[in-house]
Design goal:
Helix content: 10-25%
CATH superfamily of the largest domain: Peptidase S8/S53 domain
Largest sheet: 7 strands, parallel
Family: Belongs to the peptidase S8 family. Furin subfamily.
Number of domains: 4
Organism: Lyophyllum shimeji (Hon-shimeji)
GO molecular function: serine-type endopeptidase activity
Pfam families: P_proprotein, Peptidase_S8
Subcellular location: Membrane
CATH topology of the largest domain: Rossmann fold
Bound molecules: 2-acetamido-2-deoxy-beta-D-glucopyranose
CATH class of the largest domain: Alpha Beta
CATH architecture of the largest domain: 3-Layer(aba) Sandwich
Length: 876
């Protein structure tokens, strides 16, 4: 009877769980878990939930059969090495299900069968840890010098008072450097009917400039779990500013947006810690009506982190790609990052190096590369932003406010979003890949003498700093109007080539490998015509290169890939701030530089380090590649799905030991704390290659190497962060009941879902006497070995975090962030309001001692800037 009642309750919960509005979270009283339920495996969701002793909360965003559950937190007596109760329950069930589970035992109790059904119904279980995503904050700014032009305004009847200062729309001083939208407006395109979602820190829908274009239905606050994305923290102006660039109305307030008749929704995630469940839901929020997700944030840009999205987030992104926008795919636009001065590169960020992102870097109003904008082979295009004395002028938080201080790659991404919104008005049928093709095809070259431009195999030019060039609205929309849709996506993945019998276990224990000596290591794989045909693969778009490298100093490692046509993609250049000793445990790089190239032939990877073997050294264990492109036969296209377990190559995996300590949370600190206060005024450059020659250090324009290196490793145990990740894989056991592989994610300084190298087998490896390794894939077509990771792998490199923790106490500019982990490093900066009288001016950090002359004086930030993002509610 009681049971029945529970069941009814569960049904009710389930029904309400399907409602679209997420329930409020209470991480301080409950532990949350995400699970994936396989209804075909024989146990109902209700059974699974009961057997784990948890309560069903709701479905995970838009992911089918993924559920958020919770359980009350144990009393405060809980010590950091008590086992996780839910995990323990699952382990007990697993043990019970597998005991005596060998093929010769024919008699089994009904109960064991139920248990086995239960265990195999639970494909995935992960504790949710709120984490802090970091805004792509512009470094602080300079008031721009006066410039004005009223011509276009008069012609088009634009009365917005700040329009003449919006040089990214009409640039009087350097007419070739602007987004070039006016001709598109004159074609009658203004973004009507297109919705962009600002996944950010809120959106001020009361703003006179935005309220007409605000889409409340597709907005949500995932920080405070409220329907509207109200900016609440003192510096929650980032999302509003980005929204203004896209959809500020043509009215009498501030300026105009690029797609000023389009709509903007606000999804608030950056104003406090957020767990993967909510980030996943945010990236699919309203994904049938929303076309474009504007994302100006990411892991820290400190030149030390190597991080990407977790499993659920990757799934959400692929879900958006496969099912969003009626199946045409959500458009994800990501800012490339502001960490170039820290030696950071966007290929160390799993969001920007995802094939699903349009990754946008910045150029300034003179068309120069601003020193903050991160280079890498995943950059697709650039858009205009701050530098050389000017910033982006856009709507600000408040009833009728305007800022002249927006910038960084944060402001480049929304400019791209606005252009894509205009294009989608003209061509709503464009898929996510058509949009990327149009970027590649229509981008406008700038600074032709810049040595960073290199020819690709198709005759185009590519630059790590500029991608394929500037996203120019007129060129983009003109190309879009006559664009023939591409065929569906095809892909294939190569088996891993192993060097020196290199292996890596699920716990990221490396063994074997080849020592990286003087001159580095090269390894070659051959792609054949047959492999393409077998995989229904016609033309190449993105490539992924996944590497397993064990190294004492990750930042010393440099990696490049050379295509059969001799085109080189630099994947990793020295990062002097990155002292992590966790290596590259299956990290996946991405390059768009080979777009359109014929992939048949030999691909050679070169791995080198700084060759100081006594101090720092490592081994190269293996690598593989994934090729993405279009199909030969569209009717045989298959949609990509994120594999549950990405290290499926070993024939047999022993379950790893049970975790002995529960999850704790960690704080992702601000990345941009080292940036000087001059991102808007510092002159850009167009004379330096982004990546100097092998062995030389630093990216372009690195003004001052950070001093904060070299002493962190001893702190690496301060923060523990673990999650558990179970995969029950259908397998050989009796009755078709699969038994599981589970592994334990995010253990200190290591990351979980890196692929494991094969333990033996099927690659013919031939070591050459020259010290090179080469492997020719004999199996040819083994395409669906699910090694692939949709998004570059995640590194929860706690070393980095520890480093930051340490830094906070050391560097004055980091001090405010202690215990907040969020706003303090946000090098965003308010200019005095131009529209509504003087507003308070904040700085997020104490002014650097070498304060630039002429800077307006700025008040220090309030001591406790973050309303909801305070401490980790969850920390134990
Ligand atoms: C999405 O669009 C459809 C059709 O235009 C509309 O009926 C629906 O209400 C919209 N949903 C949201 C959440 O805006
Ligand atoms: C790799 O393993 C094979 C078989 O186990 C062995 O014959 C070979 O010598 C090993 N090679 C290296 C470089 O360790
Ligand atoms: C490709 O690599 C294989 C193995 O290293 C080699 O035998 C072959 O000659 C190479 N082909 C070309 C075109 O370089
Ligand atoms: C590699 O570096 C470590 C210190 O990081 C050192 O102890 C070891 O001797 C080095 N190995 C070689 C072969 O130089």
């Amino acid at each position: 009877m009681k049971l029945r009642w529970t069941f009814v309750l569960a049904l009710l919960v389930q029904r309400s769980a399907l409602a679209s509005t997420p329930a409020k979270r209470s991480y301080d009283t409950h532990d949350y878990y995400a699970l994936e339920h396989d209804p075909r495996a024989g146990a109902s969701l209700d059974e699974v939930v009961r057997s784990l002793g948890v309560e069903l909360v709701e479905r995970v965003g838009e992911l089918q059969d993924h559920w958020l559950v919770r359980t009350e937190r144990p009393e405060m007596t809980s010590r950091s090495n008590d086992p996780d109760p839910v995990l323990s329950k699952f382990n007990t069930l697993r043990a019970r299900a597998s005991s005596g589970a060998n093929a010769h035992v024919l008699l089994r109790s009904e109960q064991k069968l139920r248990t086995q059904a239960l265990v195999s119904s639970l494909k995935y279980l992960e504790r949710q840890v709120p984490r802090q995503r970091t805004k792509r904050a512009p470094p602080s700014v300079q008031r721009p010098s006066e410039s004005s032009s009223a011509g276009v305004a008069q012609r088009l009847g634009i009365t917005d008072p700040m329009f003449s200062k919006q040089w990214h729309l009409v640039n009087d001083e350097n007419a070739e450097h602007m987004m070039n939208v006016v001709p598109v407006w004159e074609m009658g395109l203004t973004g009507k009917g297109i919705i962009s979602s600002l996944v950010d820190d809120g959106l001020d829908y009361t703003s006179a400039d935005l309220k007409e274009n605000f889409d409340a239905d597709d907005s949500y606050d995932f920080n405070d779990h409220e329907p509207l994305p109200t900016p609440k923290n003192f510096d929650d102006h980032h999302g509003t500013r980005c929204a203004g660039q896209i959809a500020a109305g043509k009215n009498n307030a501030c300026g105009v947006g690029i797609a000023y008749n389009s709509k903007v929704a606000g999804v608030r995630i950056l104003s406090g810690p957020i767990s993967d469940v909510d980030e996943a839901a945010a990236l699919n929020y309203g994904f049938q009506n929303v076309s474009i997700y504007s994302c100006s944030w990411g892991p820290p840009d400190n030149g030390q982190a190597m991080e990407g999205p977790g499993y659920l987030i990757k799934k959400a992104v692929v879900n958006g790609i496969n099912n969003g926008r009626g199946g045409k795919g959500s458009i994800f636009v990501f800012a490339s990052g502001n960490g170039a001065a820290n030696g950071d590169q966007c290929n160390f960020d799993g969001y920007t190096n995802s094939i699903y992102s349009v990754t946008v870097a910045a150029v300034d109003y003179k068309g120069l590369h601003p020193y903050y904008s991160e280079p890498c082979a995943a950059n697709m295009v650039v858009a205009y932003s701050s530098g050389s004395g000017k910033n982006i002028v856009t709507t600000d938080k408040g009833k009728n406010e305007c800022t002249q201080g927006h910038g960084g790659t944060s402001a480049a991404a929304p400019n791209a979003v606005g252009v894509i919104a205009l294009a989608l008005e003209a061509r709503p049928d464009l898929t996510w890949r058509d949009v990327q093709h149009l970027c590649v095809e229509s981008a406008r070259m700038i600074n032709p003498d810049d040595p960073d431009w290199e020819p690709t195999a198709t005759g185009k030019l590519y630059s790590y700093k500029y991608g394929y060039g500037v996203l120019d609205a007129t060129r983009f929309i003109t190309a879009a109007k006559s664009w023939k849709l591409v065929k569906p996506q095809a892909w294939f993945e190569t088996p891993a080539i192993r060097l020196g019998n290199g292996t890596m276990t699920a716990e990221e224990e490396y063994s074997g490998g080849q020592f990286i000596g003087k001159g580095g290591i090269s390894s070659t794989m051959t792609i054949t015509k047959e492999m393409l045909v077998q995989n229904n693969f016609e033309t190449l778009e993105h490539i992924n290169v996944k590497v397993w490298i064990d190294h004492t100093t990750r930042g010393d490692v440099e990696i490049e890939i050379i295509s059969p046509n001799g085109v080189t993609s630099v994947l990793a250049k020295k990062r002097s701030g990155d002292r992590a000793h966790s290596g590259f445990p299956g990290w996946m790089f991405m390059s768009v530089k080979h777009w359109g190239e014929d992939p048949v032939g030999n691909w050679t990877i070169k791995v080198t380090d700084q060759h100081t073997p006594k101090k720092s050294n490592g081994t190269f264990l293996g690598w593989n590649m994934k090729f993405w492109g279009s199909t030969i036969d569209p009717s045989k296209a298959r949609k990509y799905e994120v594999p549950l377990v990405e290290n499926v190559l070993p024939v047999h995996i022993d379950p790893p030991p049970l975790p002995s300590t529960p999850t704790t949370t960690k704080v992702l600190t601000k990345p941009t704390a080292h940036l000087p206060d001059d991102h808007g005024s510092a002159p850009g450059e167009n004379t330096n290659p982004a990546f100097s020659s092998v062995g030389a250090s630093g990216p372009t324009g690195t003004p001052n190497p950070t001093a904060d290196v070299g002493w962190f490793p001893s702190l690496s145990n301060l923060v523990a962060n673990q999650k558990w990740f179970f995969g029950a894989v259908g397998a050989v056991a009796l009755f078709g009941i699969g038994m599981g592989v589970f592994f334990w994610r995010r253990r200190k300084a290591r990351l979980a879902n890196y692929s494991t190298l094969p333990a033996g087998d099927d690659l013919s490896m031939s070591a050459l006497a020259t010290g090179r390794q080469s492997g020719v894939m004999t199996g040819g077509n083994r395409p669906t070995r699910e090694l692939y990771d949709a998004f570059g792998e995640v590194s929860d490199d706690d070393d980095d975090n520890d480093e930051n923790t340490a830094l906070r106490g050391t560097h004055p500019q980091d001090r405010v962030s202690t215990g907040l982990g969020f706003h303090s490093g946000f090098l965003d900066d308010d200019e005095p309001s131009t529209a509504g009288g003087p507003t308070p001016v904040y700085r997020d950090e104490p002014e650097p001692s070498d304060e630039r002359k002429g800077s307006p004086s700025r008040a220090a930030s309030p001591g406790s800037p973050s309303g909801s993002g305070g401490s980790w509610e969850h920390a134990s």
